[in-house]
């Protein structure tokens, strides 16, 4: 493809799984090293208030694929094995517009080999429990049958499996180094397969490539060289708010699968080091791909968007993993880069407006000059990223984001404008309120502060309106109603 600004650009979407918003050197993290992502942000635009409205893998990816809010794509919690049937998907729209479309890595859809509009998928979803149970699923859906990385790995190392390290995919506080040559790590594999796509693509078409990494989601298994980068680092302890649990009588923190609890300090520090190491490993592999993209003469023709599907609490407030509304779980990195300067972005700009997973599809279609379907709820972020010097002001943006996650007694709804955050736990009625501008680490729950009562009432009224008419019955239009049965999937897609 020639460097022709009148031709449609290639589109490269890079996603990682479970990366916190603050794990970028350019965002001021005191330890983690991300030189290639820093360069994408330095020469592009970084969105500092990006969120995942329903912060676990399945609903977040539904938002990416469809551009819809959780109310419309219907996945308001984590539930596997619910068929994905959407009329309009991001890869489908690119394919209809003449793009050669490819995904490498994680999809996390059902059935697992559902193309979702891609011409081809080279699949590695990571370890998914429902795909490993040979006695409860059809053989055609078993992991051994559907996962391309595992087939490839066993060609390199006969008998190899994803469990060889003794780490589960939800071992949130247990870490050890990758035991095989680095080139066999799934992070390297995603990049190697993506490079191979550059070789095999149709040269007469622009491409849409989704390079989708499973890490830094556990297992926490970085190659030794990356773990060594952090073994002596001065890693700050996670923040613990005045509202967080202060003791752990059930010893939940000793479980390798814990989502809450007080973890022994040495174990937690090692887990944090491994988590940062996985991020730096991904960063270097992204650099590897961008170098090859330049060698193929396509970097200047490619618009790049980098993000994560959700975050990782990693000990914040003695909490781990995701699904909760706190910043470590719900807030993500989000970078747009345009090496060919097609889009008129303001280099180095940091945007404060609240953006979300649903905005990815319209943004990338907009960058390619492809029509956005009416089914899409999100908006293109390109106007926010544009160089506005001497031009009209940025158009009005969403005033707030409504997020939620169904998860038993921890089921929650939340609202934020990036400056304040209101949280309502739907099963207990507990409210939390954080002044993010002054308290970015959510150390103080201001829900009972006299000075904040009017603001809490304001946000509560918005949530009452957002939930009115929802099938769970959380709102009657005048008040919030706690204790209603939470749903993970709304009825319009449950079938």
Task: Name the overall outline.
Answer: globular
Question: N-to-C terminal Cα separation, in Å?
Answer: 43 Å
Overall SS class: alpha/beta
Taken together, the total number of domains comes to 2
Radius of gyration: 22 Å
Helix % is 25-40%
| CATH class term of the largest domain | Alpha Beta
If you average the pLDDT, what whole number results? 95
Strand order of the largest sheet: 5-4-6-1-7-9-2-10
DSSP strand content:
5-15%
- The CATH homologous superfamily of the largest domain is termed Alkaline Phosphatase, subunit A
- Contiguous low-pLDDT stretches (5 residues minimum) are none
Would you kindly provide a written description of the structure presented here, covering whatever features stand out?
The protein has 495 residues and is α/β, with parallel strands linked by helices. The protein has two domains: 10-385, Alkaline Phosphatase, subunit A (3-Layer(aba) Sandwich), CATH 3.40.720.10; 401-494, Arylsulfatase, C-terminal domain (2-Layer Sandwich). It has helices at 35-42, 57-66, 70-73, 90-96, 143-146, 148-156, 186-200, 224-230, 265-295, 327-330, 360-368, 382-385, 453-467, 491-494, and strands at residues 10-17, 45-47, 50-51, 100-105, 120-123, 207-216, 302-308, 331-332, 334-337, 349-351, 355-356, 401-405, 412-416, 420-425, 431-435. The strands form three sheets. The protein has an eight-stranded mixed β-sheet, sandwiched between helices. Strands 12-13-14-15 form a four-stranded antiparallel β-sheet, covered by helices on one side. A three-stranded mixed β-sheet has the order 8-3-11. β12 and β13 form a beta hairpin. The longest helix has 31 residues, at 265-295. The radius of gyration is 22 Å and the shape is globular. The relative contact order is 0.18. The mean pLDDT is 95. Keywords: Hydrolase, Metal-binding. GO terms for molecular function: arylsulfatase activity. This is Arylsulfatase. It is an enzyme of class 3 (hydrolase).
């Amino acid at each position: 493809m020639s460097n022709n600004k009148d031709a449609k650009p290639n589109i490269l979407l890079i996603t990682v799984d479970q990366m916190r918003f603050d794990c970028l050197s350019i965002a001021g993290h005191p330890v983690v090293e991300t030189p290639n992502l820093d360069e994408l942000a330095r020469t592009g635009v970084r969105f500092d208030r990006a969120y995942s409205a329903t912060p676990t893998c399945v609903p977040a990816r539904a938002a990416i694929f469809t551009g819809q809010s959780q109310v419309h794509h219907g996945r308001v919690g984590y539930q596997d094995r619910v068929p994905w049937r959407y009329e309009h998907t991001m890869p489908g729209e690119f394919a209809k517009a003449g793009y050669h479309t490819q995904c490498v890595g994680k999809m996390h859809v059902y059935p697992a080999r559902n193309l979702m509009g891609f011409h081809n998928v080279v699949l590695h979803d990571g370890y998914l429990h429902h795909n490993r149970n040979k006695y409860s699923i059809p053989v055609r859906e078993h992991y051994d049958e559907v996962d391309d990385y595992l087939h490839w790995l066993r060609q390199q190392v006969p008998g190899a499996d994803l469990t060889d390290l003794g780490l589960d995919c939800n071992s949130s506080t247990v870490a050890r180094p990758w035991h095989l040559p680095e080139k066999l790590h799934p992070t390297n594999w995603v990049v190697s397969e993506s490079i191979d796509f550059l070789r095999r693509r149709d040269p007469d078409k622009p491409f849409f490539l989704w390079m989708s990494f499973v890490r830094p989601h556990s297992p926490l298994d970085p190659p030794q060289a990356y773990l060594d980068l952090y073994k002596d680092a001065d890693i700050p302890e996670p923040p613990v708010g005045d509202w967080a649990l202060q003791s752990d009588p059930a010893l939940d923190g000793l479980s390798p699968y814990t989502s809450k609890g007080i973890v022994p300090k040495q174990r937690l520090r090692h887990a944090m080091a491994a988590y940062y190491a996985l991020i730096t490993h991904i960063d270097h592999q992204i650099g590897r791909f961008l170098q090859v993209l330049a060698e193929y003469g396509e970097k200047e023709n490619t618009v790049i968007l980098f993000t994560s599907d959700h975050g990782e609490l990693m000990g914040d407030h003695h909490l781990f993993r995701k699904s909760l509304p706190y910043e470590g779980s719900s807030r993500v990195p989000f970078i747009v880069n345009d090496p060919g300067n097609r889009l008129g972005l303001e280099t180095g700009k940091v945007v404060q407006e609240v953006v979300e997973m649903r905005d990815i599809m319209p943004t990338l279609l907009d960058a390619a000059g492809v029509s956005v379907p009416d089914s899409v709820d999100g908006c293109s972020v390109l106007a926010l990223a544009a160089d506005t010097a001497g031009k009209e002001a940025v158009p009005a943006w969403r005033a707030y984001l409504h997020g939620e996650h169904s998860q038993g007694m921890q089921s929650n709804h939340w609202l934020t404008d990036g400056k304040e955050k209101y949280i309502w736990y739907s099963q207990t009625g507990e409210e939390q309120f954080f002044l993010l501008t002054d308290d970015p680490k959510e150390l103080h729950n201001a829900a009972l502060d006299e000075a904040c009562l009017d603001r809490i009432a304001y946000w509560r009224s918005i949530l009452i309106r957002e939930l009115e008419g929802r099938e769970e019955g959380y709102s009657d239009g005048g008040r919030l109603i706690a204790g209603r049965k939470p749903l993970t999937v709304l009825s319009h897609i449950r079938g």
